[in-house]
Design a protein that fits this description.
Blueprint: H1 10-28, H2 32-43, H3 45-51, H4 64-67, H5 69-79, E1 97-101, H6 112-115, E2 118-119, H7 126-139, E3 142-146, E4 152-162, E5 168-176, H8 178-193, H9 199-209
Antiparallel strand pairs: 1-2, 1-5, 3-4, 4-5
Helix pairs in contact: 1-2, 1-8, 2-8
Length: about 210
């Protein structure tokens, strides 16, 4: 097992390799959604957390958003783009939808808010989409919408919204068909690959960590 050059280009590239070579076996066994969620849980969250702008909890321990400053700037610009016209999703037709839920009790098929979902607004930014997806993956807030034949028609990502007293006020959700979520993942990996992390810098990181 060769060592990682870094966790913002090399690691997610390997995640995409897994997505590619495992796609057909997963599809033949009805495990394509499981594969997508497994890959996303690592290949989306890890580089996103390491490259995104520092938040209210301070710097990421890796310091990658400073070490790979050019890539961090590209991510910051991407986060500010409207999602439906961004490099992560620029298809004319889409199953990406969103909305709010007052409760997540019972099965998704019974959620009133889910039945009122709408296509994502042309003005909704990439940052809003990634925040919900990242939060759902990190906290296990993932559900599926199933057909009468018990097939997965949609993946639902949920993020809890809190009031000033840290009590859950409601939930934001994203809904997308499995195939389109996999397309989104591939676009995410393409974005990271096109950040072109300088190998000299990557090797310096390894040397410092040795």
């Amino acid at each position: 097992m060769t060592a990682y050059k870094n966790f913002v280009e090399d690691f997610p590239r390997r995640c995409r390799d897994i997505l590619d070579f495992a796609r057909k076996p997963a599809l033949s066994r009805g495990l394509e959604v499981t594969l997508s969620l497994m890959v996303a849980s690592a290949g989306l969250i890890v580089p996103y957390e390491r490259l995104k702008p520092d938040g209210r909890f301070g710097d990421h321990p890796s310091g990658d958003n400073k070490t790979f400053a050019d890539a961090a700037i590209k991510l910051k610009l991407l986060l500010d783009e409207p999602f439906v016209t961004s490099r992560l999703w620029s298809q004319p037709n889409s199953t990406w939808q969103d909305g709010k839920l007052d409760s997540v009790k019972g099965y998704p098929e019974t959620w009133e808010g889910l039945q009122k979902r709408r296509p994502i607004s042309n003005h909704k930014k990439v940052s809003a989409i990634l925040t919900v997806v990242r939060n759902a993956l990190a906290h296990g807030n993932i559900f599926t919408f199933n057909s009468r034949e018990n097939m997965i028609e949609g993946i639902i990502f949920i993020k809890a919204n809190f009031n000033e007293d840290s009590v859950i006020r409601n939930y934001s959700f994203l809904y997308v068909a499995p195939k389109e979520f996999q397309q989104f993942l591939r676009s995410w990996f393409d974005f990271l690959y096109n950040c072109h992390i300088p190998q000299v810098t990557a090797f310096e990181v390894l040397k410092d960590a040795a």
